[in-house]
Write a structure and sequence with these properties.
Elements lengths: L9 H7 L4 E6 L5 H12 L2 E6 L6 H11 L3 E4 L4 E4 L4 E6 L16 E4 L7 H8 L12 E6 L8 H6 L1 H4 L13 E6 L2 E5 L5 E3 L2 E3 L2 E8 L5 H6 L1 H6 L5 H7 L16 H9 L12 E5 L7 E8 L2 E2 L3 E4 L6 H12 L5 E5 L4 H12 L3 E4 L19 H13 L13 H8 L3 E4 L2 E4 L2 H8 L4 H10 L9 H19 L12
């Protein structure tokens, strides 16, 4: 009978780790797949191993056969190994958004993910939500493996394991160190320890996470085979990602990514505390549509954008509730408030307009657009494409707008998410629902910032009156920024 044993070092550390959610690997060749199979074989009763697509499971199934052929039987139809001691190891895939619902209500005490960067954030979180066992003595946990993400779709992993993977994190964690997290008022929050506590009358139990890096040097079998030389011969940045597990190495943009990552990073590098002379120019509001969506407010001061204010949908179930948040953010300022009016946002718009009149502006992304891009050559199929493209043009370093964005990783992920294409009707930007299906969550922060940047007139408002108002804003902001050297050459709108 073949008995699997972990390799000394990181693989053993991962197997015995007390973390509820463990991310293992980073580099190639560290024994990631064997860890998942071995943990299911030796520590758990009912396990499921996921890959994003079914064809990708072939290598895992073959490796499982090598390790477990003498101790169990495999049912190809059900894709389940049943071991002689009663343990079961199932294989699953969630290729398309929504496929995770196929596993709803099916208990497993080990949820294992191979190549986590291929999964969407909401897919991962949803599947983890069904982790449980009827046996109170059986430990339940999540083990995920993977290499650094190669594009923006995998950025969520760096946020999820930020203390270990985000080089700018305020309180970095060491490998194997446990950190505890829970959700409070709709926001994921890191807490001091794993002790249960009361929050607004509810007993909350935090869950722990950790990251354990592993490289090819930690696997003597691969070292003997010369695999390290293969990794060393790869071109950069792939070499650094797979050889060293370097999460800081730049990721490649999708060819149809609307806003280049480099432009956004330059805008974040310009971010600094807002100067006292910069007036509040606009507030962009993306209203929650239910579920896990959030209401987000973004304030713009000329070309400087404040950190988004995020509220769980449970706090903004009525238009009046959203209006109160907006009015608090507005204070005594007199500026436009651009509100997404599709769906539940219409009631919020009506409530705000009762207080500030025509300064409340309805943002209907589905409406037709008569605008053109800066070149005057390309049209847009709707307002959504117009607004997103306008932000793209403002962020272009060659344009000179000097947009400054807050250093918010989730916001960055939202802004790099949309993709575009040129159709016979003009520029088309990926819909919000399509983005949500692809990345597994709603890009609320990004949309709010786009609304804050956009210029929109009210239906029925006279064009002369409208442009007189815009000219007034431009003159006011130019006068304010002329006193601030860093912004003298900015194009304000």
């Amino acid at each position: 009978m073949l008995s699997w044993k972990p390799l000394p070092g990181p693989q053993t550390d991962a197997l015995v780790s007390e973390a509820d959610i463990l991310f293992y690997g980073g580099a190639a060749g560290g024994g990631k797949t064997d860890l998942l199979i071995g943990a299911a074989h030796t520590r758990h009763r009912s396990s499921i191993l996921f890959r994003r697509e079914y064809p990708q499971l072939r290598a895992i199934i073959d490796r499982t056969t090598e390790l477990l052929a003498d101790v169990g039987k495999y049912n190809k139809t059900a894709m389940i190994w049943t071991l002689e001691d009663g343990r079961s190891i199932e294989f699953g895939a969630v290729q398309h958004a929504g496929d995770e619902r196929k596993y709803q209500g099916r208990p497993h005490d080990l949820k294992a993910f191979d190549e986590l960067t291929h999964f969407g954030e909401m897919q991962f979180r949803t599947l983890c939500g069904w982790l449980r066992s009827a046996d109170p003595k059986q430990r339940c946990r999540v083990i995920a493996t993977g290499n650094p993400p190669t594009d923006s779709d995998g950025e969520w992993i760096i946020r999820f394991f930020a203390p270990w993977l985000d080089g700018s994190h305020a309180h970095p964690a060491k490998p194997c160190e446990l950190r505890w997290f829970t959700t409070l008022d709709g926001r994921e929050t890191e807490v001091e320890n794993g002790k249960a506590f009361l929050h607004k009358g509810e007993r909350v139990v935090p869950r722990s996470r950790t990251f354990i890096p592993a490289r090819v040097e930690d696997n003597p079998y691969y070292m003997e085979s010369g695999y390290k030389a293969t990794l060393q011969a790869l071109p950069e940045p792939l070499r650094s990602r797979l050889l060293y597990g370097d999460f800081a190495t730049g990721r490649e943009d999708n060819p149809y990514q609307l806003i280049p990552t480099d432009w956004l990073e330059k805008a974040i590098a310009r971010y600094d505390a807002r100067d006292q002379y910069a007036p509040l120019s606009c507030i962009g509001v993306d209203v929650a549509r239910g579920g896990s969506d959030r209401t987000v407010l973004t304030s713009r001061y000329g070309n400087w954008f404040a950190s988004p204010q995020v509220y769980p949908g449970s706090m903004t179930r009525t238009g009046d509730a959203v209006a109160q948040l907006i009015l608090a953010a507005l204070g005594t300022a007199k500026c436009s408030v651009n509100i997404d009016v599709i769906g539940v946002g219409s009631s919020a718009f009506d409530a705000v307009r009762r207080h500030i009149g025509s300064l409340a502006r309805a943002m209907n992304a589905a409406q037709a657009s008569n605008a053109r891009d800066k070149s005057g050559q390309m049209q847009f199929i709707n307002r959504r494409a117009q607004w997103w493209w306008s932000l793209r043009e403002a962020l272009d370093p060659a344009g000179g707008d000097n947009i400054a964005l807050p250093p918010d990783r989730e916001l960055l992920a939202d802004l790099v998410a949309p993709r575009w294409k040129l159709t016979v009707r003009g520029i088309q930007v990926e819909s919000k629902d399509a983005i949500k299906g692809r990345i597994g969550r709603s890009p609320d922060k990004g949309d709010s910032l786009v609304y804050a940047h956009a210029i929109e007139h009210m239906s029925g408002e006279g064009y002369l009156q409208y442009y007189e108002g815009i000219l007034h804003i431009i003159k006011r902001e130019k006068a304010a920024f002329s006193r601030v050297p860093a912004y003298k050459d900015s194009t304000l709108l």
